[in-house]
Amino acid sequence: MKQPAKDPKLIKQQRQKMLQFRRQLPIYSGREAIIETIKANDAVIVIGETGSGKTTQIPQFILEAGLASHELGTIAVTQPRRVAAVNLAKRVAEETSSTLGGKVGYTVRFDDTSSNHTLIKYLTDGMLLRELLMDELLLKYKVIVLDEAHERTLRTDMLFGMIKNIQRIRKDKAAQGEDVEPLKIVIMSATLDADKFSEFFDMAKILYVSGRLFPVDTFFTKEPQADYLDASLVTIFQIHLKQGPGDILVFLPGQEAIETLTTLVKEYAAQLRRSQQQVLACPLFAALPPSQQQHVFDPAPENTRKVILATNIAETSITIPGIKYVVDCGLAKMRGFNPKIGVESLLVHPISKSSAWQRTGRAGREASGTCYRLYTEDTFRELDDDTVPEIRRCNLAAALLSLKASGVDDVLSFDYMDRPSRASLVRALEELYSLSAIDDRGHLTELGKRMASFPLDPTFSKVILQSADYGCTKEALAIVSLLSVDSIFYTPSDKREQAAEARRKFLHPDGDHLTFLNVLQAYWEVKGDLGWCRDHFINVRNVKVALDIRDQLVRFCERNNIPPQVSCGTDTDQVLKCFLTGFFRNTALLQPDGSYKSVVGNQIVKIHPGSAMFGKRAEGIMYNELVFTTKHYVRNVSAIQSSWLPEAAPKYFNNMRASV
Ligand code: CDP
Ligand code: MG
User: Which residue numbers delimit the Helicase ATP-binding domain (predicted)?
Assistant: First the structure.
């Protein structure tokens, strides 16, 4: 690609252009009002359409108005996403004609360009939480900007409570004459539901930046699309061949989908005639090397249409100029959405209506545009209105563990924007205690600290951490990942008998966990052969999702110095004992009449007919799921010995004994 020559005249021209650009951003006309409001208030909420200039301009306004400085304290701007933090810092460094790491810098995990000179620092919310552990009152900052507040990630919610508390303490200290600067808080969001933020920050003032959004024509598909990649590809080239100029932004759920589609688009594009307008495919996702991310922002070469294939990173946190067409597959990878094992950030899920509108809006930034939704209007109507706050989605024990790991000891009186009930908080604490994640004074244990670093519900992270002691990490990883998907089997209604017969081959006498393991081992032996999967009624898609999760967990194990390949071979009791360290409360013992009574709660539970343990008798059973229908059914069940229980959870069972 041609690089423009860097002569001084050109640089000056570029600088001039940048200034002009800044001045014509919608937020510019509100500059004085914004500065005055921040000056006069402790906390301010700014609502504005994506691309109006909130993230890049407001920190500059604050600085220009002298509301932050090396003496008073600097500005921190949090971002839920790493790429956004890096990208925004670069942009603002450019706009302020400074080098990265000078006036403007960023801090993300494993990469820190900030320095003593930095006045505006973009950082991930995780990094600010980490700074909090070193500097309780975040004294180095005068202004903290919590950006992308509408996303309501667990970390952002944690920061809301913590920063509010810090502000109160600093204000008190300053009032008592201590040499402490009061803290200013700015909350920025792209969606309109600002009242909740305002209420939380003691009726903080809300500023609306009038955005500039041109009309966008929105189309749905008539039929649901079986393959969103295929549908995206077709749509991209229909736009390219039939519609006028303008770049295309395609929203896809994750890196893998983006890479696959990028290859396909390139293949198709190669077949275009030379006389036709060409196509340039630009992927954009968090893990992409920064040098490649830049392509997204560079103007397309002459006679070329850019097709940007992005995750929901392009939804509100990064604005790409030149977009006239949006293709929305309606899916996103989300954190904490798998209630089965509480895996975070890993599963593809339908987006909310407000996300869909945000995506649509990307087509109308500079002129009117068009949005193609690759789902039906009925599907759209069924979407949730807003993305549910993560703290409401993930297991509360996991959320509390995170809070504790971030230094909030008293999680009961923590200031939650969406406060869970006291009973559920207490229950979650009890769970953490019985898992030995916290001690009897509620402090995080060493084990708890390590559990907090895993993207799993605490029960499952405990199993994986303990698997090193039981010598069965390989097996634990396999089973945990398989438990994360709906079912690795499928049963066509007209072939029930055949499916059951095919499945019998994998059955393990000790139940479902080891049966799953048999399936995966067989799958690996045939290298996932599709014919074999079909013959054995294996749901390939779900197995692949599970393996994807497994890969991620393997990386977490490596980071925690747990060799992921350690296997117990044929000593499979080890696997079940290991699972008990997390699931000791999900157990039931055989009664003389042949029923099973749960160890906790003394409930009669029935083994689900789909389980390998159905109709069998064992001294005790352990299960991962309890389903309420007409009876209490348990699923994913294995046989255990009652003598294993005290070893699996000494704290819990000794307490029980003491209280009897
Ligand atoms: O935060 P908000 O969505 O309101 O907007 P912003 O991120 O501050 O971006 C303001 C404008 O700057 C966008 O409309 C983009 O056109 C431009 N921008 C850019 O060209 N390159 C970047 N890396 C970031 C922003
Ligand atoms: Mg922004």
Answer: 35-210
Distances (CA, A) of 320 to 83, 312, 389, 549: 13, 13, 27, 31
Q: Residue 7: CB partners within 8 Å, gap ≥ 6?
A: none
| Cβ-contact 369, 214 below 8 angstroms | yes
| Alpha carbon of residue 358 to chain centroid | 18
**How far is the C-alpha of 108 from the C-alpha of 79, rounded, in Å?**
10
And the tokens for 8?
A: 């001084």
DSSP annotation of 73: B
User: Whose CA is closest to atom 17 on ligand 1?
Assistant: 319
Residue nearest to atom 18 of ligand 1 (CA): 319
For the four alpha carbons of 377, 381, 385 and 388, in that order, the dihedral sign comes to: negative
From ligand 1's centre to the CA of 318, what distance in Å?
7
Q: How many CB atoms lie within 10 A of CB 495?
A: 13
Q: At what angle do helices 8-23 and 82-95 cross, to 10 degrees?
A: 110
- Cα of 54 to ligand 2 centre, how many Å? 5
Testing ligand 1's pocket by substitution, the residue of 29, 56, 306 carrying the most ligand atoms inside 8 A of its CB is: 56
| Dihedral angle over CA of 336, 342, 347, 352, nearest 10 | -40
Contact of 108 with 86, CB cutoff 8 Å: yes
User: Can you list the residues of the chain whose pLDDT is less than 70?
Assistant: 1-6, 290, 335-347, 628-629, 655-660
| Of residues 365, 262, 382, 287, the one with CA closest to residue 330 | 382
Spacing, Cα 58 to ligand 2 middle (Å)? 10
**pTM reported for the whole predicted model:** 0.77
Kindly report the length of the chain. Answer: 660
Ligand nearest to the CA of 91: 1
Return the bridge partners of 588, or none.
Answer: 598, 621
Q: What is the pLDDT of residue 625?
A: 82
All domains in the chain, ordered by first residue: 8-209 (3.40.50.300), 216-390 (3.40.50.300), 454-650 (no CATH)
Residues with a CB atom less than 6 Å from ligand 1: 25, 48, 50-57, 87, 91, 297, 319, 321
Report how far residue 151's alpha carbon sits from residue 170's, in angstroms, rounded to the nearest whole number: 27
pLDDT tens, 95-124? 999 999 999 999 987 789 999 999 999 999
Read off the tokens for 147.
């950006």
For the segment 257-308, what is each residue's pLDDT rounded down to a tens digit?
Answer: 999 999 999 999 999 888 889 999 999 987 777 677 778 888 889 999 999 9
Q: What is the reported pLDDT for 658?
A: 47
Can you tell me the ipTM of this complex? Answer: 0.98
pLDDT value at residue 109 = 78
**Nearest C-alpha neighbor of 332 from the set 318, 316, 352:** 352
- Tens-digit pLDDT profile for residues 577-633: 999 999 998 999 999 999 999 988 888 999 988 899 999 999 999 998 887 667 788
Beta strands in 500-651 (DSSP E): 587-590, 596-598, 604-607, 620-628, 632-640
Reading the block at residue 117, the tokens are 């000179």
Ligand 1 center to 319 CA (angstroms): 5
Alpha-carbon distances of 522 from 437, 472, 509, 512, 570, rounded to whole Å: 35, 18, 17, 15, 15
CA of 323 from ligand 2 middle (Å) equals 17
